[in-house]
Amino acid sequence: MPDTLAAAFRSLSNRNFRFLWFGQLLSATAMHADMVARSWLVWDLTGSSTSVASVLVARAVPMLILGLIGGVAADRFDRRKLLMIIQIWTLLMHVLMAVLLLSGIIELWHVYVLAFGLGAGMAMNQPVRTSIIPNLVAKKNMMNAMSLNSVAINSTRLIGPALIALLIAATDVGWAYVSAAGAFVLVIIFTTKIEIPRIPVTGGRGNPIHQLIEGFVFIGQNRAILALVLLGLGPLAIGFSHQVLLPQLVQEQYGYGIALLGVLTSVGAVGGLAGGLFIASRKDVSYKGKLMLFSAGSYGFALLGFAGASYLWMAFPLIIWIGASQTLFRAGNSATLMELAPDRLRGRIISATLLDTALSPAAGIAAGFVADQYGVSAGYLLLSAGCLGIVALTLAIYPKIKDL
Is 326:235 a contact under the CB 8 Å cutoff? Predict the structure, then answer.
């Protein structure tokens, strides 16, 4: 067991990756604090679930607009300095929310604007942060490093939302943003300690629009990368949006309230954490293509299982497997993309996968509409069909993906 744990966390022996990873851990902590606090705040201000959902859309919109720009920026400029700027921006967003809340002058439009601002920071952050990893760890440890990123996110999701909820109950929503701001101060400190080997960057040279187009042209000409981006639509967009159905599932199917919703969310994080640790403990993963197809396909079948999960006990193994499948897919997909993409294009390639994540609210709206009209099982059937359909389409277009 000690040897297995050591293997799972081996990338952390790299000083620079260790600082990047601790930054990811704290950044994820702040993200979960914001998600819990913002949802509760909007509900408290409006009493409307539609308003809660619309703020989520406001946060997702920048990922469609700025995610690709973040990819271009990651390939044009010094990635460490760019990451610092993005993190300072995110810190300011959290500070502004804390000030507005603790001073008692918060209004709903403030929440929308600052949700958009935080979404902009996230859209720029992910391409930059992910494209740094290949410059810090050896290729043989790429999968391990990507898996540890998922471990950081899921470990904070396991306990973070509950702790933030307790803090809000004991004090005020504003203190959740104080804690998020404090986390980002530490993120910035860790980032200052990262030393990235000097690599050629295009700097301000060249037309950024042409560079953006160059990224899409490369994706279009490289069938393997195109297949990886397409496959991501299954679990990252269609599958991930199943969360919008959970409140209806909990209340209408099982007759419970928010307590069960919180339990299911934490149980899903257990699956994600287990999946991350499992793949991180592998010394070498030579079957990434098969792993991605398996995890994306099993995600779709788990959603199909939810459509027929009449009894509460059935929901727990399904949500655990969904969490594990999501982590396994993300780790395999990100690692393979980083291995196939040349360094000068890594930011743009990883930003293309953000389009998958940004489309999740659209899939959620479609599933929610079907669930409202025909029942929650119909919503899960729609998502399952979409997820499995993407897997089948990807295999039909590029059968060699299983050999990556």
Answer: yes
Instruction: Report if residue 240 sits inside a domain.
Output: yes
Q: What is the largest CA-CA distance in the chain?
A: 60
Q: How many domains would you assign to the chain? A: 1
Which tokens belong to 193?
A: 């300690």
> What is the rounded distance in angstroms from the CA atom of residue 238 to the CA atom of residue 261?
20
pLDDT in tens, 289-308: 888 999 999 999 999 999 98
Residue 96's domain comprises 2-399
pTM value is 0.73
- Cα(212)–Cα(219) distance, rounded to whole angstroms? 11
pLDDT of residue 23 exceeding 80: yes
Q: Please, what is the end-to-end C-alpha distance for the chain in angstroms?
A: 30
Residue 243 placed within a domain: yes
For 331-383, what is each residue's pLDDT tens digit?
A: 888 878 878 877 777 777 777 776 766 677 778 778 877 887 888 899 899 99
- Which burial class, exposed, middle or buried, applies to 373 when counting CB atoms under 10 A from its CB (0-12, 13-18, 19+)? exposed
User: Using CA atoms, how far apart are residues 335 and 247, in angstroms rounded to an integer?
Assistant: 33
Please state, in angstroms and rounded to a whole number, the distance separating the CA atoms of residues 256 and 252.
Answer: 8
- At residue 377, the 3 state secondary structure works out as helix
Percent of the chain with pLDDT over 70: 87
Q: Look up residue 44 and give its two tokens.
A: 């408290």
Token pair in block for residue 209: 């629009």
Q: Does a structural domain hold residue 404?
A: no
Task: Say how far apart CA 82 and CA 88 lie, in whole Å.
Answer: 10
On whether residue 331 sits in a domain, the answer given is: yes
Please give the C-alpha separations between residue 56 and each of 59, 118, 139, 283, 357, in angstroms, as whole numbers. 5, 11, 36, 38, 12
CATH number at residue 299: 1.20.1250.20
Residue of 25, 56, 50 lying closest to 38 (CA atoms): 56
